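User
New here, help please:
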Amino acid sequence: MEERILVVDDENDICDILQFNLENEGFIVDVAISGEEALTKITDQHQLIILDVMMSGMSGFKTAEKLRKAGNNVPIIFLTAKNKESDLLTGFSMGGDDYISKPFSVKEVLARVKALLKRTTPVGMAANTKLLFGGLSVDLSTQRVKTDDQEVSLTRKEFEILALLAQASPNVLTRAEILHSVWGDNEFVLDRTVDVHITRLRKKLGDYGQFIVNRSGFGYYLHIDTKKEI
């Protein structure tokens, strides 16, 4: 099945360039020229969004925030001329998966798109494994998480981080190990990005969030006594 991408940018020239080159690579491409239009066009068939940050009307960050709040976990690549640390952290905290700075090269965009789509499951995951930590369930095959039988809505990156910690438990993973496993060689991802995602992850896990422990100077680990694989 051909992979479908939604390109969102208020500059028609950029939309045209991206659509032409992505379609030449075999992707199905839809275009929206505003965040508002993107929210009406996004469907379950889209496997990726390329989203400009600075648009008139609703910003890319706000668009991403609305998607995540609605439970849509489609991967997002932000296009932006803003590359300060605070801007990058804001984008990742909104559920972004990658960043490409403007002006960009088409080759870079194509490479990033293919790399992100290839990472459909976290690195090193067993295909049919469910990890149980008391009332916390991490299903690696379906990429679903439950706490006390209640499903928890996580972004792709939040799930990948939790899955890595669950598989490694009780061993500690450094920030560098988490960054490499979840984000690959993305030059824009900072150590603090891990902290931002784990803060959000802890909040979503409720009482179970306290079991993600930061060992100062080392990294993070999942501290739950009972671990079971089924």
Summary: Residues 120-127 have pLDDT under 50 and may be disordered. The chain has two domains: 4-118, 130-229. The chain is about 40% helix and 25% strand. The longest helix spans residues 191-205.
